[in-house]
Design a protein that fits this description.
single chain, 128 residues, two-stranded antiparallel sheet, 5 helices, 6% strand, elongated
Length: 128
């Protein structure tokens, strides 16, 4: 197969450390981001297209990615911070408790939407 790097140029980008930290805390697992993370969907589609056109008979996409696309690409691994994990767990506990309030509001609006709309229209909140 033709070298993938001859078709696609890889550039280094800044690794989004803040997002990495948030995901690591939310999942409570280490999160790795490679230097090419910012390349996006078009780049990924180009890799897939190149693979489909140029692949050897027994070559898997996994082999292409491991041996050519991501070979030698540097990444950054962030481990979850204990205080971030606790903070996220507290947030999720409060968020989950708040879902009941949201459901009551939705149920009320579903049951009373006509009356709510009429009152809002009368107040001028919704154009008639």
């Amino acid at each position: 197969m033709k070298s993938i790097t001859s078709t696609i140029k890889i550039k280094s980008v800044f690794c989004p450390i803040v997002g990495q930290k948030i995901v690591a805390a939310a999942m409570n697992v280490p999160v790795s981001v490679m230097a090419i993370a910012g390349e996006g969907g078009v780049w990924g589609m180009e890799i897939l297209a190149t693979y489909m056109i140029n692949k050897e008979q027994q070559e898997s996409l996994e082999d292409l990615l491991d041996q050519q696309v991501f070979k030698g690409v540097e990444g950054q691994e962030i481990f979850p911070d204990g205080s971030d994990v606790k903070g996220f767990e507290a947030f999720m506990e409060r968020y989950t408790k708040g879902l009941a309030i949201e459901q009551i509001a939705v149920d009320y609006l579903v049951e009373n939407w006509r009356a709510v709309r009429v009152r809002a229209t009368q107040r001028g909140s919704i154009p008639g």
